Amino acid sequence: MAVEVVMPRLGWTMETASVAEWLKHDGDTVREGDILFTVETDKVAQEVEALDSGILRIPPDSAPPGVSVPVGTVLAYVTRPGEAAPFEGRAAPSAAAVPAPQPETGATLAGAASARVNGRATIPASPRARRVARELGVDWTTITGTGGTGRIVERDVRAAATARPVAARARVSPVARRVAQQQGVDLDELAAQMPDKRITRADIDAAIHPVADRAPESGHPMPLSRARRIIGERMVHSVQTTAPVTLTTEADATELAALRERIKRSLAGSKRPAPSYTDLLTRLTALTLLEHPWMNSTLTGDAIVQHEAVHMGIAVDTERGLLVPVVRDAHLKSIQRIAEESAALIAEARAGTSKPDQLGGSTFSITNLGMYEIDAFTPIINLPECAILGIGRIVARQVVIDEETEELAIRKMLALSLTFDHRVVDGGPAARFLQAIKRSIEQPYGWLIA
Amino acid sequence: MRDLTFTVAAREGLAEEMERDDTVFVVGEGIGERGGNWATTVGLHERFGPWRLRDTPISERGFTGMCTGAALAGARPIVDFMFIDFLLDAWGEIINQMAKMQYMSAGRLTMPIVLRGAIGVGHASATHHSGSYYSMLGHVPGLKVVIPTTPRDAKGLLKTAIRSDDPVFFLEHKSVFGVRGPVPDEEELIPFGEASIVREGSDATVVAIGWMVHQTLAACAELAKDGLSIEVIDPRTILPLDMDTILASVHKTGRLLVVDEDYSFFGVGAEIAAQAADRGFDDLDAPIRRLNGSFAPVPYSPPLEAAMVPNPTTIARAIRDLLAE
Question: Is B180 part of the contact surface with chain A (CB cutoff 8 Å)?
Answer without folding.
Answer: no
